[in-house]
Specification:
Radius of gyration: 29 Å
Number of strands: 22
Low-confidence stretches: 646-696
Strand order of the largest sheet: 11-12-10-13-14-9-17
Shape: globular
Number of domains: 5
Strand content: 5-15%
Number of helices: 33
Structural class: alpha/beta
CATH architecture of the largest domain: 3-Layer(aba) Sandwich
CATH superfamily of the largest domain: P-loop containing nucleotide triphosphate hydrolases
CATH class of the largest domain: Alpha Beta
Largest sheet: 7 strands, parallel
Helix content: 40-55%
Mean pLDDT: 86
Length: about 750
C-alpha cells in the first residue's frame, strides 16, 4: 500500500492543513479563511480516504455547489491517485446527487424514471397559466414573483401543506399556498421536477421511506461538503439525514464569506455545526497564501465587527506589502478616470491586465467604467453577466428611443412591440410582418393599415392603436423636451418602468437601477440621436475575445477569484453597504454586507484600493455622500489615506472619523433618512471651500460657480434645487450647497 504521507500533495500542506486531512472519524468542520488552501485540503483528504482504503469510492459522498468545482475536485483527485478516483459516482453538486437518488426511486414521489427537469422559462410559463386559471391579474401578481416565492419555500424545505398563514398571504391575497400545491400537482402530471424538487423531494422520500433512508445512510460512510456556509435549509436537512449513522461528515467553509442569503443560503448552518454534530472537531485554516500582511490585517479587523461568526485571524508569512489605499474623489466620473489612469500606468509597465479587477457592489456602477475604458481603448471583460449596453433592459430602452426618432425602424419596433406585454400575440405579429413584406412598407405603416381592417381582433386592435399613438407622441416631443427628459417619458409612457417596478424577481431591482443609470448616461449628449450613435460605436469596439483584459464584475461574482490588483469603487453609505439591503434585513443584512466587503478586499494579492465619492448621481439626481462605515472599521496602521483628489491635501484617518457623524445607531434600517441633514453638513467639512452650506439663498438670475461645470446663471429655484444654465456645459439641476454665489 502506498504511504500517503510521502505524496507531494500531502507534503506541501502546512501542519494545520495536514491535521484536517488526517482526521479519522467523527464530524469535522474546517473553517477555511480566504486564500488558505481549502480546496487542497478537501481533495487531499478525499485522496487519502481512497489510497489508504479507509473507504471505497462508492462509499464517499462529496458535495460541491457548482459543476465547475466538482470537475476540478475530480481532476485534482485523479492527478493524485489515478484510476482509484474513477469510481467516485457520488461526487457532484447537491442537485446532481439529488437527481441520482430520485431516479432510483421515482415512483415513491409520484414520478417515472425518465422525468424531466424544468428550466426557469418552463416554470414561469406553467405558473403564468396557473395564475390565470385562478383569475389573478398576472401583471399585479407576476409569475416570476410566485416562482421566487416557491423557490424560497423549497430552499427552506417547506412543502405545500406546511405553508404558514403569513407566508400564504404573501402572494395574491392568500392564494400563494394554493398555487404552490397546484404547481406541484402539475409537475407530477407532466412527469417533471424543478431544481428545488431535486433536494426537497429527496427529503420527502427519506422521511416517508425509512428503509430507503437507511440504505443511503449505510452507503455513505464518509461525507465531504465544500462551501458549507452557502447551504440552505433544504440542503442542510438532506446532509443531516444522510450523516446520522456514521457521523463522518467533513464540512469545509468560511462563515466570513457567506454572502448569498438572497438565494437562500443561511450562515446559521455553519455557525451551529458543533451543536448539530456533538463532539465535532473544529480546525481553523488561518495561514493565507494569497494576500500581503496589510491586506489581511485590514480585512481581519473589518470582519471583527460582525457578531455572528466563529472568529479567526488570517496571517501570512509573506511581506507586509502595500497598505490598503483609501481614495476620495469628487464624483463617480472622477473615480472612473483615476482608476482607469492608474490601470493604464500598470499596463505601460507591462503589468498583465488579466491580473487587475474592478469589483462593484451593484451592476449599474459598471457603466461609467465601461464608457471610460472604451474612450481610452482599454480592453476589458465583464464577468458574470453582459456588458452594460448589452443588457436586455438597456437594449429594450434603446429600441424605444430609436422608435421615437425613427418610427419606421422595424427592427427596433419588433423588439418592443409586446414588451411589456400588450396582448399582441405571435399570430398578430406574423400578420404584421407578412403585410409589411408583401407591401414593401415599414412595420409601423403595416400596423396603421391593418388596424383599419377586420383582420385584427378588436382587443388587439385597441392595443396596436394605443401603441401607434404613443410613438407619434414621442416623435412630436423630440424638439419640445430635453433628450434626457424625453427618455424617461418614453419608458414611463410605454409601461416599461412599471413592468420593472412590478417585477418581483431577484434581478428586477438591479435592472431598474441599470435603467436609472442609463438616464444618467444620456444627459451629457446633445440629443438621443447622438447618444444612440455613440452606443452603436461602443457595441462595435473590442469584439476580439483574445488578449489580456481588465475584469469588471460585482462583488458577489468575485467570490473564489483572485487578482494582483483589486479596485473597490463606490464605498459610500447607501451604495455599500447597500441601503435597500439594510432597510430590508437590518443587522443581519449589515453583517452580510460587511462579509461582502471582506470578500472584496481579500481578492487582492498585491494591492487593494478602495474609493468613495463625495457626490454620486443616483436615480438621476445628485446626492451628497459620506464614506462607508466599513472604512472606519479598518485599522489606520494598515491604510493609506489619500484625499488629494478630493480637497487638494492629505488628511489623516482620524480626520475622516471626526468628519463623519456618530455611527452608534447603525443598526436602525432607516438611519440614513433620519440623519441626512447631519450627514450633508458633516460631508461639507471634507468638500472644497467652493461649496457653501445649504442655508445659502439664491433666486432667479443669481450668478454662481460650480467646481465641475464652472460659472452659471440660476434659471429657477425649487426649494434647495437650482436649475442653472452653465453655458457650454448645458442646463443642469444642482443642489444649492454644491455652488457658491458670485453676486
Amino acid at each position: 500500500m502506498t504511504n500517503f504521507k510521502t505524496l507531494d500533495n500531502f507534503k506541501r500542506l502546512n501542519e494545520v492543513q495536514k491535521e484536517a486531512v488526517l482526521h479519522d472519524k467523527g464530524p469535522l468542520l474546517v473553517l477555511a479563511g480566504a486564500g488558505t488552501g481549502k480546496t487542497g485540503v478537501l481533495t487531499t483528504r478525499l485522496s487519502r480516504l481512497l489510497i489508504e482504503n479507509i473507504a471505497l469510492p462508492g462509499e464517499i459522498l462529496s458535495v460541491t455547489f457548482t459543476n465547475k468545482a466538482a470537475n476540478e475536485m475530480r481532476s485534482r483527485v485523479s492527478d493524485q491517485i489515478g484510476d482509484k478516483a474513477s469510481g467516485l459516482k457520488w461526487l457532484g453538486t447537491f442537485h446532481s446527487i439529488g437527481a441520482q437518488i430520485l431516479r432510483t426511486y421515482p415512483e415513491k414521489i409520484g414520478l417515472k424514471n425518465d422525468f424531466i427537469i424544468l428550466d426557469t422559462d418552463d416554470q414561469t410559463r406553467l405558473l403564468k397559466q396557473l395564475i390565470r386559471d385562478e383569475n389573478i391579474d398576472d401583471k399585479k401578481w407576476s409569475p416570476k414573483g410566485l416562482l421566487n416565492l416557491i423557490d424560497k419555500w423549497k430552499n427552506k424545505g417547506i412543502l405545500p401543506g406546511n405553508i404558514s398563514r403569513d407566508d400564504g398571504d404573501y402572494f395574491a391575497n392568500g392564494k400563494g399556498a394554493i398555487l404552490y400545491r397546484k404547481y406541484q400537482d402539475q409537475l407530477k402530471f407532466f412527469n417533471a421536477a424543478d431544481f428545488g424538487d431535486l433536494i426537497l423531494e429527496c427529503i420527502r422520500l427519506f422521511n416517508e421511506n425509512q428503509d430507503i433512508l437507511e440504505q443511503y445512510q449505510n452507503r455513505f460512510k464518509f461525507m465531504l461538503v465544500d462551501e458549507y456556509q452557502d447551504t440552505n435549509s433544504s440542503q442542510y436537512s438532506l446532509l443531516k439525514l444522510l450523516s446520522n449513522k456514521w457521523m463522518n461528515i467533513c464540512c469545509v467553509g468560511d462563515d466570513d464569506q457567506s454572502i448569498y442569503s438572497w438565494r437562500g443560503a443561511e450562515v446559521s448552518n455553519i455557525l451551529r455545526f458543533e451543536k448539530d454534530f456533538p463532539n465535532a472537531k473544529v480546525i481553523r485554516l488561518e495561514q493565507n497564501y494569497r494576500s500581503t500582511g496589510n491586506i489581511l490585517a485590514a480585512a481581519s479587523r473589518l470582519i471583527e465587527s460582525n457578531e455572528s461568526r466563529f472568529g479567526k485571524t488570517l496571517w501570512t508569512s509573506s511581506s507586509e506589502g502595500e497598505k490598503v489605499s483609501i481614495t476620495s474623489t469628487w464624483d463617480g466620473e472622477e473615480e472612473a478616470r483615476i482608476i482607469t489612469d492608474e490601470i493604464e500606468r500598470y499596463s505601460l509597465n507591462n503589468k498583465n491586465l488579466d491580473e487587475i479587477a474592478i469589483l462593484v457592489r451593484a451592476s449599474f456602477q459598471m457603466r461609467e467604467f465601461e464608457d471610460r475604458f472604451i474612450s481610452v481603448g482599454l480592453p476589458y471583460k465583464v464577468i458574470g453577466g453582459p456588458r452594460f449596453y448589452e443588457r436586455k433592459e438597456i437594449r429594450d430602452a434603446n429600441a424605444y428611443f430609436r422608435i421615437a426618432i425613427q418610427p419606421n425602424d422595424s427592427l427596433a419596433l419588433e423588439r418592443i412591440l409586446n414588451t411589456p406585454r400588450r396582448g399582441i400575440g405571435e399570430t398578430t405579429i406574423k400578420k404584421i410582418k407578412d403585410y409589411s413584406k408583401n407591401n414593401n412598407i415599414s412595420t409601423i405603416e403595416a400596423i396603421k393599415d391593418l388596424i383599419k381592417t377586420s383582420e385584427i381582433k378588436p382587443k388587439t386592435k385597441i392595443s396596436l392603436k394605443n401603441f401607434v399613438e404613443l410613438t407619434d407622441r414621442w416623435h412630436s416631443l423630440l424638439n419640445e423636451r430635453s433628450h434626457y427628459e424625453l427618455a424617461e417619458i418614453i419608458l414611463e409612457d410605454s409601461g416599461y418602468l412599471e413592468m420593472l417596478r412590478n417585477d418581483d424577481s431577484i434581478t428586477a431591482a438591479g435592472r431598474l437601477e441599470n435603467i436609472k443609470e442609463l438616464f444618467r448616461s444620456i444627459e451629457p449628449f446633445e440629443s438621443l440621436n447622438a447618444y444612440l450613435e455613440h452606443i452603436a460605436l461602443v457595441m462595435e469596439i473590442d469584439k476580439n475575445p483574445d488578449g489580456n483584459k481588465v475584469s469588471l464584475m460585482t462583488l458577489h461574482a468575485a467570490k473564489g477569484l483572485e487578482f494582483d490588483y483589486v479596485y473597490l469603487p463606490g464605498w459610500e453609505e447607501g451604495v455599500f453597504p447597500n441601503q435597500r439591503s439594510l432597510d430590508e434585513g437590518g443587522i443581519e443584512s449589515l453583517e452580510e454586507e460587511r462579509r461582502l466587503a471582506y470578500v472584496g478586499i481579500t481578492r487582492a494579492k498585491i494591492k487593494s484600493s478602495i474609493f468613495y465619492a463625495a457626490n454620486r448621481k443616483m436615480h438621476n439626481q445628485w446626492l451628497s455622500s459620506i464614506p462607508s462605515r466599513f472604512i472606519n472599521e479598518m485599522p489606520e496602521d494598515n491604510l493609506e489615506i489619500n484625499l488629494s483628489h478630493f480637497s487638494g491635501n492629505q488628511k489623516s484617518f482620524t480626520d475622516i472619523e471626526e468628519d463623519t457623524f456618530d455611527q452608534s445607531d447603525y443598526s436602525t434600517p432607516g438611519w440614513e433618512r433620519a440623519k441626512i441633514e447631519s450627514s450633508i453638513k458633516n460631508l461639507e467639512n471634507n468638500q472644497p471651500k467652493i461649496i457653501k452650506n445649504s442655508n445659502a439663498k439664491y433666486s432667479k438670475g443669481s450668478i454662481v460657480i460650480h467646481k465641475k461645470f464652472g460659472q452659471g446663471k440660476v434659471e429657477s429655484v425649487d426649494g434647495k434645487k437650482l436649475t442653472i444654465d452653465f453655458g457650454e456645459s448645458g442646463t443642469r439641476k444642482v443642489m444649492e450647497n454644491f455652488v457658491e454665489s458670485l453676486n
